[in-house]
Amino acid sequence: MRTIVRDLSKHIDETVTVCGWVNAVRAQRKIQFVIVRDDSGMVQTTLRRGQDEAMEALIDKLHDESAVRVTGRVVANEVVSLGGIEIVPERFEVLGAAEAPLPIDRNTGPEQRLDWRYLDLRLRPEQRQVLAVQSTVEQAMRDYVFSRGFVELHTPKLMGTASESGAEVFKLEYFDRAAYLAQSPQFYKQMAIAAGFEQVFEVGPVFRAEPSFTSRHSTEFTGVDIEFAWIDGVEDVMDLEEEMIAGALRRVEELHGDQIFETFSRKVKAPDVAMPRIRMDEAIELLRSQGWDPEGQRAELDPEGERRLSAHFLEQTGSEFVFVTHYPSSVRPFYHMRPEGDPDTTLSFDLLWNGLEITTGAQREHRYDVLCAQAEEKGMALEPLRQYLDAFRFGTPPHGGLGLGLGRFTMTLLGLESIRDTSFLFRGPNRLTP
Amino acid sequence: MRTIVRDLSKHIDETVTVCGWVNAVRAQRKIQFVIVRDDSGMVQTTLRRGQDEAMEALIDKLHDESAVRVTGRVVANEVVSLGGIEIVPERFEVLGAAEAPLPIDRNTGPEQRLDWRYLDLRLRPEQRQVLAVQSTVEQAMRDYVFSRGFVELHTPKLMGTASESGAEVFKLEYFDRAAYLAQSPQFYKQMAIAAGFEQVFEVGPVFRAEPSFTSRHSTEFTGVDIEFAWIDGVEDVMDLEEEMIAGALRRVEELHGDQIFETFSRKVKAPDVAMPRIRMDEAIELLRSQGWDPEGQRAELDPEGERRLSAHFLEQTGSEFVFVTHYPSSVRPFYHMRPEGDPDTTLSFDLLWNGLEITTGAQREHRYDVLCAQAEEKGMALEPLRQYLDAFRFGTPPHGGLGLGLGRFTMTLLGLESIRDTSFLFRGPNRLTP
């Protein structure tokens, strides 16, 4: 029966078994100290020389990061800096020996750390914490949509045609023909609406064949996708996201708040004000009045504009979040709905958090004839879209939804420098290992 | 503000708005009846002719399955068979018109129904129910592992080498080189253990390039994967699965039990006895004594043997589940641990439920030298495995885990004939659409 390190102080003068990694070995003339680390903390084991030759020899050969199991008595000793306790080992087993030296340490450069990502995660507990926080975020979002009656679906990642936008799609050999990897569950979650599901949710991998090397891009990432029917307008989608994010941040604050403050110097706090919403044209006007895009050439925000806009609203309203709405039709896909009598605009939004776009959402065009016309207007051939378009021929209700990048959310939440830190094993144009 | 059909009886003599699909139109000489269906039920709307010409004309042109929004007064009328209420419409809007006729109906053959899967799901609510139950199963499993402190990770689906078993792997073009789709998160979840995560969980897509056309196979399916460290033996893995499944079945019973009994004639019941465990050699002996494999040629169970064994234990113990343990090394992968001094056997198991294998699990070999030796013994080249093997060089604790096919679980739970009914959009060797 294993005792975790955090609980050892409840077992003074008892014999326990501890499992963990060797954090350090300090061999002195009269005593051997081994610091054993598990997820909950570290403990010192203390062996006086001359009492157990076999154990002494084993510890002399022990390398850092070996996986060990130690059985011994827990002793209170106020001179021990690790919690004032130590273990006097009766049995010391090396269950998984480590080679020495390790190929990386805490100071190795980023690419080589990615080469040995699992060791980097082992050596830097704060990196494992990123993924634990991300797991909490994801589950809190799920709990929120389930409380509203959503169903979680798994849409196919294998597609017969590269429909949405051929350029960024990975192609694969599929028996005697070609298949493509889904770059978003967009079309499929809309098919779920056509299928009579009123509210659907998915968390799954998304593949992008983009040769981008920025700190915000990867070729495979985890998308959180939501789509729901019978909406009255795109505001319903933003309302849902507002509540979902507030719920997720409350949960993170509760479960990880102190630890995050300690490790990342970030104070997690669920938004206590509504997230402001501003139309794209108004946002551009506002930013231009403050000196952005002086030549007046942009139809939408660039990353610099996004940062400035976020800073403005943080200062004016105290909100780290801002919805930018009504993107021009020219920069939005054909399936975004346009307001009645205003074909140059879409009923769409991005959500910015501290200057980073974490979500794109919209009300979708659900009327078959309008949808076809909008695709043609964009110069798209309808035949490759046939499977998708057909789903709108037999009675599809008004609906909308959003896609949220889980890694971008975590990156902003913890103030990380790169999306790579939010992936267990990052994938980029030059990176398919480990 | 929308009212769902199930709640209409609370709104007698009030004006409400109902959203749903046209289930049927019955135009009579003096009255037009439209049956509107939403997820919660069906309601009749009743319009007397001669009162609203525009609405009358609209209903005369209305096709089944159109998405409509109806505002009107709820009237108690005991002659109405649908719950004794009807709606007298004041406003009738067609939000998404349906073409007629529909390309399929409830009697169309299976392949054509898959061609129009979203319509099939719309027309057969029991098919949507399958996916709603599956969503509950998945979430209950997640809640169980989270209660034990697991972290959910998303492992890469893109791999640099076709390591585990080249034959069944899809290959894709990845910029200037090749990549492969993960056929299991096996290697990656073990890397998570090497990374210092003690308990990890994943639900995600799994890809198999197998040209199989059986009712149990697909090229893309949803896998539930678990791996955890510091186990004392493979029994720990079976214990976890037993509790996880019992928890999932309790949740399904609670949330869907009545509906499942009504639709699928299945009584859902969480196991109230321990799941029996039998060694493969003993299972074979037992079955041979009952006339199976009379020529004594098999080293493991075939599907017929699995069915017979399940039937035996159901009769003897009342358990629909049985763990078959200690598969021969010859039929298990190199990374399964073998018992001390018994190299022909593995510390592995399959879980059978009513004769169908739903899980494979094992304690893994975590010792680098033993792992390499076992791979070589299987005739595998070590170089393609290098990325995986390296994860065992720097101190990896004992660990084990399992993979469960979510669709197979749901199929058995509901007594479905084919795995296809458990996929939102099925993918097979001949099927990449819709």
Question: What does this entry look like structurally?
Answer:
2 copies of one chain form a homodimer. In chain A, a hairpin with an 8-residue loop joins strand 4 (67-76) and strand 5 (85-96). By secondary structure, the first copy, chain A, is α+β, with helices and mostly antiparallel strands. In chain A, the strands form 3 sheets. In chain A, strands 6-10-11-16-15-14-13-12 form an 8-stranded mixed beta sheet, sandwiched between helices. In chain A, strands 1-2-3-5-4 form a 5-stranded mixed barrel. A 3-stranded antiparallel beta sheet of chain A has the order 7-9-8, with no helix packed on it. Chain A is built from 11 helices and 16 strands. The mean pLDDT of chain A is 95. Chain A is elongated. In chain A, helix 4 (125-147) runs antiparallel to helix 6 and helix 4 (125-147) crosses helix 11. Chain A has helices at residues 53-60, 110-115, 117-123, 125-147, 186-194, 234-264, 280-289, 303-317, 368-377, 386-390, 406-414; strands spanning 15-27, 31-38, 41-48, 67-76, 85-96, 151-152, 158-159, 171-174, 177-181, 199-207, 220-229, 277-279, 321-325, 348-353, 356-363, 399-405.
